[in-house]
Specification:
Helix content: 25-40%
Oligomer: single chain
Strand order of the largest sheet: 4-5-3-6
Strand content: 15-25%
Largest sheet: 4 strands, antiparallel
Structural class: alpha+beta
Shape: elongated
Mean pLDDT: 78
Order of helices and strands: EEEHEEHEH
Number of strands: 6
Low-confidence stretches: 129-134
Number of helices: 3
Length: 134
């Protein structure tokens, strides 16, 4: 049987998702002096919803997150919450960013998500070998 990550009253679950999302116009404002602050905000919001961040990387113009989302939340519901609340919190802490992003829209509407199954190690090895081929 699979390693069960967690359980609810009537559910045993292991729901891992690889999520990638970007700021508007792929601006590199999330990197550098704001990187640590944005990371804290994202961790805080995930804790509020009971979402575990397994791994996360703030790149210069996008964010990668490997998360465990409980089945009581849909991925789209969680992403709407995460991007909406994080942009409000980021603009409150860093008011000078509102001049770079009009109408206080920090993130693009779209995001990428893929599921990570029980063969996570095999997928990681394949992606490493694919990078070597490119």
């Amino acid at each position: 049987m699979a390693n069960i990550r967690d359980s609810l009253s009537h559910t045993k679950w292991l729901c891992k998702y690889h999520i990638v999302f970007t700021p508007k116009y792929r601006r590199e404002a999330i990197y550098g002096q704001y990187k640590e602050s944005i990371g804290k905000i994202l961790r805080q919001l995930c804790n509020y919803k009971g979402v575990e961040i397994i791994e996360g990387h703030l790149m210069s113009d996008h964010i990668h997150m490997l998360v465990c989302i409980p089945p009581k939340h849909s991925v789209s519901q969680f992403m709407g919450y995460l991007k909406g609340k994080s942009s409000l919190m980021i603009f409150d802490r860093h008011t000078n960013l509102k001049y770079k992003f009009e109408n206080r829209h920090l993130w693009v509407e779209e995001y990428y998500v893929s599921t990570v199954g029980l063969n996570e190690a095999i997928i990681a090895n394949i992606s490493v070998s694919m990078k070597l081929m490119i």
